[in-house]
Design a protein that fits this description.
Layout: H1 2-21, E1 33-43, E2 49-62, E3 66-79, E4 82-97, E5 102-113, E6 118-134, E7 138-153, E8 156-172, E9 177-188, E10 191-206, E11 211-222, E12 232-243
Antiparallel strand pairs: 1-2, 1-12, 2-3, 3-4, 4-5, 5-6, 6-7, 7-8, 8-9, 9-10, 10-11, 11-12
Length: 244
């Protein structure tokens, strides 16, 4: 039942993305740009496994000063009819550029990870960022700022303040291929042994003007996980993506 709910929710989200993000086509404002991807792995016989992944990202820039980046991803997996993956994550970040390279931002993240026993983790806060590299092929930016984390992990609710330290790099290898990498560090203020690290690295290669193949690694390290859970979660995903 839960896998059906996850697939339906993500499918509805992905189905609406192209329509919603293309709604400005009739006027002169810039369109959104992004992609939606999905992957499915099934095995049967000596080993019965199922792994479903979905991810959507989009960005809009306008007035040379405003940037909006939104995204969502979900994973569901079973092995021998026993659930071993159930994760839903979404984020939204608005940037306002004070100069060509310096910007202020507000960011919201929300996460549910059933296997890690995280009922919810919501992170919200403002900050400041800087583009160290910014051209048509490459960008490298760093971000930092205070944030508050609301979470229910291991059946216990907790609220704490953190300092968000993050960076993101992206480079177009050619007209049809790009690589990217991101890293985020979230330590609890007052308890520096409680911290979370999120990292991602990936590559995307275009098949044609609308379809591409992407492969990426996501890693989450929670130094104080829920009781009975491991600190590190690593995921390798290969998926077919629709670009708009």
């Amino acid at each position: 039942m839960k896998i059906n709910i996850v697939i339906v929710v993500v499918s509805l989200f992905l189905a609406q993305v192209p329509a919603v993000l293309g709604q400005n086509a009739a006027d002169n404002t810039p369109k959104w740009a992004g992609s939606a991807s999905a992957g499915l792995t099934l095995t049967s016989g000596n080993s019965d496994t199922l792994l479903f992944t979905a991810k959507a990202q989009a960005m809009r820039k306008w007035d040379t000063r405003n940037e909006l980046d939104i995204g969502a991803d979900a994973t569901y997996g079973e092995q021998e009819d026993i659930k071993n993956n159930e994760l839903i994550h979404g984020y939204a970040q608005y940037n306002y550029l004070f100069t060509e390279r310096t910007f202020g931002y507000v960011r919201l993240d929300a996460l549910h990870d059933d296997i890690a026993d995280v009922d919810y983790r919501i992170t919200f806060g403002p900050g400041i960022g800087y583009y160290f590299i910014k051209n048509e092929r490459t960008f490298l930016r760093g971000e930092t700022g205070p944030a508050v984390v609301f979470e229910k992990q291991g059946g216990e609710e907790n609220t704490f303040f953190t300092i968000r330290l993050a960076e993101r790099f992206e480079h177009k290898l050619s007209k049809t291929a790009r690589i990217w990498q991101s890293l985020e560090f979230l330590p609890e203020i007052g308890d520096w042994d409680n911290y979370i690290i999120n990292a991602e690295v990936g590559i995307e290669v275009a098949i044609n003007t609308t379809w591409s193949l992407k492969s990426y690694i996501q890693d989450t390290y929670d130094h104080e996980p829920a009781p009975g859970r491991l600190k590190n979660d690593l995921k390798l995903v290969t998926a077919l993506a629709y670009t708009f």
